[in-house]
Design brief:
Distance between the termini: 45 Å
Oligomer: single chain
Number of strands: 20
Length: 600
């Protein structure tokens, strides 16, 4: 089983074409401008001196690398000479300042050269991991190998320091990412040394004394996913982005090594996340104290963290699991993340971003709280890992659309598109015609040698009555065939597990893959007092400016009163509530929002 390369699929129209165009026309430029202003690109020159502005930071190289990777994805689909020239300039600076032994990190070379590989949590290996991914993508898109040669020298140095000499102050990285990048590098070049280094970092995590000695003064070993050897893990703990980058690498290695113990650990971790620690939007990392997973079923709304990068990392984990076995639940989670907790991190004009993604905003409550998340997206953060992550994910959004196993093709995601396949040793073409997620009708047109197409039936589509295998409906296709799957797309009211007590007695509104919310701008103040009426007239309307429909539904609220307390009353004021896709909140002005509502 292998996820089909995103570049094999061309998005033709619809929801994801809108976001793909937005990435190319707006997002990549605005991230570049902000990174240029803040000195991230100039840091690669390694010329900063004390007292000057824009002091480099330990993880700036990772921000740059993600932006380069996103640009490379865009170039692979369609040339961008201006962006390519800018990347070449950055690569020249990296190559010019890389040490003879292969080490490169703009912060440590410039600010603290005596501290190289001294602190486990200082992101050196994390930055290298993202640079590896950027180098692979840029080489694949352009054929230029300067950045790839730089990272190969760096990896050789890391192998020598960590595996052969064991001279660093720690054994495994504090912030995981290099592990999955090394496996990608192995897949790209076939060098066993790169797989061996990834395996070294994974096998030694939670399994050595040196990392314990290099512990963080404020966080325990669970924060770094170092509390147990990886094959013994059963609960997702600690920093959620680090965790899911790690779990992604675990799933990737389990596949390549046919490691059943590692696969079993991945199964347990995935189950723990999606059944006990994930918001209905696909957001993870509920505890803002450390950006971490909280305990089981602790899923707050107004003060949840749900970092945009965490949603992306969960999609990556599900994408790696999708290559391990046929099970529609992985596509279900990717879909939930992509349509909700991921794109909520980006404004509809492609210029502003959310780092955290709350499910409820009550600005009066925030005014007296020690935790005060922003209520409007901003153009840049001091810790700006999310914006370039959005760039690279949108640039390759079809990466988990199809999974291929011989002449069997599994369709996991839906979009108006054309995909090139190899079936029976020959080129084949599979197209999707659909207005998804406006409606659930998808028509597949096929030309090529005979093949079997399996199409995911989403978990939200409980009305589907056809026969499925592991959540997929099966079609045998030959040249010229056309088949249509029509997924009923009704408005559903979702309830949470009884142990998720923040949502007791409340419901989330979902239609198809999209979770909805109410904004104060449409529905007035005091959103928590609104009750939606399930059996009222519900209208689903496509409106200008939002790439998915809005919902109008009958609702009621209690009348205003000057009394603080009174006897229970049935008096209610009726009105029509307007619900917008969760991803579209905070695009007009700062406003209270609410996902979990009362329903009768």
């Amino acid at each position: 089983m292998k996820n089909l390369d995103f570049a094999k699929t061309t998005l033709k129209d619809g929801f994801w074409r809108f976001y793909s165009n937005l990435d190319r026309s707006s997002v990549v430029k605005h991230v570049y401008d902000r990174f240029k202003e803040t000195g991230r690109f100039d840091a690669l020159r390694c010329m900063w001196r004390e007292g000057e502005p824009n002091k480099p930071h330990i993880f700036w190289d990772s921000d740059v690398a993600k932006w380069i990777e996103g640009v490379a994805f865009l170039i692979e689909m369609s040339p961008e000479p201006e962006w390519e020239a800018l990347v070449d300039e950055m690569v020249d600076n990296i190559a010019a300042n890389q040490r003879a032994d292969g080490y490169f990190n703009s912060y440590f070379l410039t600010v603290e050269p005596s501290k190289i590989f001294c602190n486990r949590d200082w992101h050196e290996l994390y930055c290298v991991g993202h640079m590896i991914e950027a180098a692979i993508a840029y080489h694949k898109a352009t054929g230029k190998d300067k950045l790839l040669n730089c990272v190969l020298k760096n990896v050789d140095m890391i192998y020598r320091v960590f595996v052969e000499e064991q001279s660093a102050a720690f054994v495994t990285p504090g912030h995981e990412e290099i592990e999955l990048a090394l496996i990608k590098l192995y897949d790209y070049l076939g060098n066993e040394k790169h797989l061996e280094l990834a395996r070294f970092f994974l096998d030694n995590r939670g399994n050595n004394e040196k990392d314990k000695e290099n512990a963080h003064p404020h966080f325990n070993s669970a924060y770094f996913q170092s509390n147990l050897p990886l094959r013994e893990l059963s609960e997702a703990v600690g920093h959620s982005v680090r965790a899911c980058y790690l779990y992604t690498a675990m799933a990737m290695l389990a596949k390549r090594d046919c490691d059943t113990e590692m696969k079993a650990a991945c199964d347990r971790l995935f189950d723990d996340i999606v059944n006990r620690k994930m918001s209905v939007t696909g957001g993870i990392g509920a505890d803002h104290r450390g950006e971490t997973f909280s305990c089981k079923y602790d899923l707050p709304n107004s003060d949840t963290y749900n970092e945009t990068c965490a949603a992306i990392s969960l999609a990556m984990f599900a994408g790696a699991m999708q290559e391990l076995e046929v099970d529609s639940r992985y596509g279900d989670i990717i879909e939930r993340v992509f349509y909700n907790g991921f794109i909520s991190g980006l404004s509809l004009d492609g210029e502003r971003f959310f780092y955290t993604n709350p499910l409820e905003i009550d600005r009066k409550k925030y005014a007296r709280s020690t935790y005060q998340p922003i209520c409007e997206r901003v153009k840049v953060f001091s810790c700006s890992c999310c914006p370039p992550n959005v760039v690279r994910m949108l640039a390759s959004i079809s990466r988990y659309m199809y999974t291929v196993d011989g002449d069997a093709v599994y369709c996991n995601q839906f979009a108006e598109s054309e995909t090139k396949l190899t079936v029976g040793g020959k080129e084949a073409v599979l197209t999707q015609k659909t207005d998804y997620p406006l409606n659930g009708k998808i028509t597949f047109n096929y030309s090529g040698e005979p093949m079997t197409l399996y199409v995911r039936v989403p978990d939200w589509c409980v009305e589907f009555e056809g026969k499925t295998e592991n959540g997929f409906v099966k079609f045998n296709l030959t040249d010229g065939d056309s088949v249509t799957l029509d997924l009923p797309m009704r408005v559903h009211f979702i309830e949470a597990n009884p142990y998720a007590q923040d949502n007791s007695g409340r419901y989330a509104v979902q239609r198809g893959p999209i979770v909805y919310c109410m904004e104060e701008l449409d529905n007035g103040e005091n959103l928590r007092d609104i009750t939606l009426i399930e059996n009222s007239t519900i209208k689903v309307i496509k409106e200008e400016g939002i790439p998915a429909p809005v919902i109008y539904i009958g609702a009621e609220r209690r009348p205003k009163t000057d009394r603080l307390y009174r006897l229970k009353t049935t008096d209610r004021v009726g009105f029509t509530a307007r619900l917008i896709p969760y991803f579209a909140f905070a695009n007009r002005a700062a406003s209270d929002i609410l996902v979990w509502t009362m329903v009768k």
